[in-house]
Amino acid sequence: MDGQQITILAFGKVAEKLGSEQLKASGFEDTDSLLRWLHDRYPALKEVDFSLAVDRKLVAGNTGLGMMCEVALLPPFSGG
Fold first, then answer.
1. Domain locations in the chain as residue ranges
2. Global pTM value
3. Alpha carbon 21 to its chain's center
């Protein structure tokens, strides 16, 4: 996917493991391929539970990634 640019936003402990609150990446057509890349590049990320949101919507399971999308890596949170 030429020209695809994904913005990855990380919060809390996830950001600590990545060493950054924001990354740019390209070449991923779905969340599974993005997660494989993140775990390979940042092995400490495997120690943290987190959820994914694509374009501000929580997703479960493999989800397609479009052009210029935003993926948030969200640590567990509580509240009510």
1. 6-74
2. 0.89
3. 11
